[in-house]
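Troubleshooting log. The previous structure file for this entry was overwritten by mistake, so regenerating from the original sequence record. Sequence copied from the archived sheet and checked twice against the printout by T.R.
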Amino acid sequence: MQTAVYTNDSLLLTQRPLNISTAAVTVYAMCQHMPSVILFYLGLQFINMFLGIPTNLMVLWLISKNKGDSSTSDIFIVHLAVLDTFFCLTPPLELANLVYLTSSSTWYVLRFFYGIKDSSPLFLSCICLDRYMAVLHPITFTKLKDRRHRPVCAGIMWLIILAYAVLKCIDSIPSFNKVFTVMILVCFSFMVFCNISILWALRLSGPGRDEMHPVKKRAFKMVLIILAIIVFNYFPPVALFPFQAYFSPDVFTCYIHYIAFGFMDISSSIQPLLYLSKEQLECQTCCCICCITKETENTNINVSSTVYTITG
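Regenerated output below.
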């Protein structure tokens, strides 16, 4: 009987038989008793490819076009769009690997790209931190606005992401999947904290007023939508993966695994779509944030990226 080793390799189950033989089967064949979730997952991946690639390229084009009027978070948004664009190229190879191929060589390529996508919350956390400082600590934000710490931070993030992707690709560290579990838990908690803090500041930024200013109300709704998308994309893996031991191997590898990462990966399309939709609200939101900071800290800041989505 063939024995297989299953590891949580981000988006896919990595099938690496200990007894290499011609009897090797595809992942889809192993999960043929519950194929609906895999088909659902593949559908989301191809949505990412057909929708995510053009929208992410459009985000890059818009930021390049408006370089003279860029926001402080644009550097992180650019790197995130590049990361998502490359990830959206993988569905054809992923389909072939899941349904048709039994060779283990292509898994190395896929695991590298999955490692890249796994680490995308790091850039999202940088965007969250930038907004949090702009709204809650505007004086400090203004002092640091023109310094080169953001490019340095982006470079450090890429070093971490590439190191993580290479280690995942090699797949030689026991229980390496726990690194992803810890990373997603920490990043998710940090992003939720930042957005709730921004919502709280928007809610309270107008002492003595019974009604929130219409512009502030629109900004509040936009940040609330961003928070909802974060929960939609990242809560499934956060809620399910720490409890992997409580699921049977078949249920986890053929069902839970693909549900969790299907919701996470669709962020590659949702994120640029929300960024593009916020363009018409950008000026109004900037006015709102400037109004808030004048009332609280008597300073002007440029935070035009406040309405940019922070999903993955």
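The chain has 13 helices and two strands. Archived copy saved in two places this time.
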